[in-house]
Design goal:
single chain; 377 residues; mainly beta; Immunoglobulin-like; seven-stranded antiparallel beta sheet; six-stranded mixed beta sheet; 1 helix; 3% helix; 56% strand; rod-shaped
Length: 377
């Protein structure tokens, strides 16, 4: 019986995976072949590091077995050279949650040019791995299911090549992470807001399987919420997270995407869901204050514009000074942090005046108006 070292490696892309062959670590297993010491093997394993339930992947073990020089001399002394094929091959065990196990099936080997300068036999075993549930699937070293006893089809049992490792048990040398398909659902409340009003999004992440093996737990990681070119993230707690959405400009319905990104301890694949958020203009209130003054003094009116939901109002105010029904002066001034001062200059005639201030509607805010009376003494 021959033990083989395995090393599992690979990468995953959405919807599929790309297996990558990776050489075993330098420390390999030593063997005795036909009771003669000195054999060793260098192995590679082509397998995904991560899979999702429902996927299938080929898992292939290639092993280069170096034959001990004393046995090599016996083989070559009898045959002269060694080419052909044999029934032996690489093997291994994949064990998952609940004790599920699937071996790497030996496929035989093709030998070419075995000689004293190249005393290596290539061995290959492969299987299709279809994980039935999420969780860790350790990959352990395996063994041959048959001796390499049909070399060239003419080698008799007396020259069978039997190799065995002294290892007490099959070592676990790598683990395939098998993830659960996940479902992300997102809800927005409220779905229509005024500019500056807070809307919150709640995302829930769950498995789309009937259940998960004990100990795998709820989804963990983050959910990234994206809308209108802005992004905010929330960390899952018990598979759920709620965030305040970023402020977006009025006059548009924004598509919202909630994308789940699992952390390194999560047994869930990525998933996402979509919703929408409508933003409308916010209401405003304008307040104008026009103080009483003495004749020939300068009238300076103060204007404040505030929004209903607290966002700072920007834009311009149109201020008109009237005496009775007659418009005397009109000025347009820009708001600074929601405030403005309007200088009407010196007023020469005594009497009653009115200042009418209008905040002109902007992209994010509605129009509003106020007026104040003043006396010139």
């Amino acid at each position: 019986m021959k033990k083989l070292a395995l090393l599992c490696a690979g990468v995953v892309v959405t919807g599929s995976f790309v297996p990558v062959a990776t050489p075993a670590e330098a420390a390999g297993l030593d063997y005795t072949c036909n009771n003669q010491a000195g054999a060793s093997a260098v192995n590679t394993l082509t397998a995904p590091a991560t899979m999702t339930v429902g996927d299938s992947a080929p898992v292939t073990l290639d092993s280069a077995l170096t034959v001990p020089s004393t046995l090599l001399g016996t083989l070559l002394g009898s045959l002269g050279s060694l080419t052909g094929s044999g029934t032996g091959g690489a093997a291994g065990t994949i064990t998952g949650p609940g004790g599920f196990a699937e071996g790497i099936i030996p496929s035989g080997a093709a030998f070419s040019g075995l000689s004293t300068s190249a005393p290596v036999l290539p061995l290959t075993g492969t299987t299709t791995f279809t994980p039935p549930s999420p969780g860790p699937y350790p990959v352990a070293a395996g063994h041959d299911t048959a001796s390499l006893d049909t070399l060239l089809g003419v080698v008799t049992g007396a020259l069978s090549l039997d190799c065995a490792s002294a290892a007490a048990s099959d070592p676990v040398l790598g683990t395939i992470r098998v993830l659960s398909p996940s479902t992300t659902t997102v809800a927005v409340s409220p779905t229509t807001v005024a500019y500056g009003q807070i809307s919150r999004a709640t995302a829930k992440v769950a498995t789309s399987l009937p259940s998960l093996p004990a100990g795998l737990g709820a989804a963990s990681g983050t959910v990234q919420f994206s809308a209108g070119g802005k992004t905010v993230s929330g960390t899952l707690t018990s598979g759920q997270t709620t965030v305040a959405l970023p402020r977006l400009g009025a006059g548009q319905t924004y598509p919202l995407t909630a994308a789940y990104h699992p952390d390194s301890s999560a047994w869930y694949e990525e998933s996402q869901d979509n919703a929408s958020l409508m933003v409308v203009k916010d209401g405003t209130s304008t307040a104008v204050t026009a103080p009483n003054i003495k004749r020939r003094h300068v009238e300076v009116a103060t204007v404040q514009v505030r929004s209903v939901h607290g966002a700072m109002v920007r834009g311009t105010v149109r201020a008109i000074l009237k005496k009775g029904t007659k418009t005397l002066r009109a000025k347009t001034v820009a708001l600074r942090k929601g405030n403005a001062q309007v200088r009407f200059g010196k007023l020469r005639k005594r009497g009653k005046y009115t200042v009418l201030a209008t905040y002109r509607a902007s992209h994010n805010f509605k129009r509003s108006v106020d007026k104040d009376a003043l006396k010139v003494r």
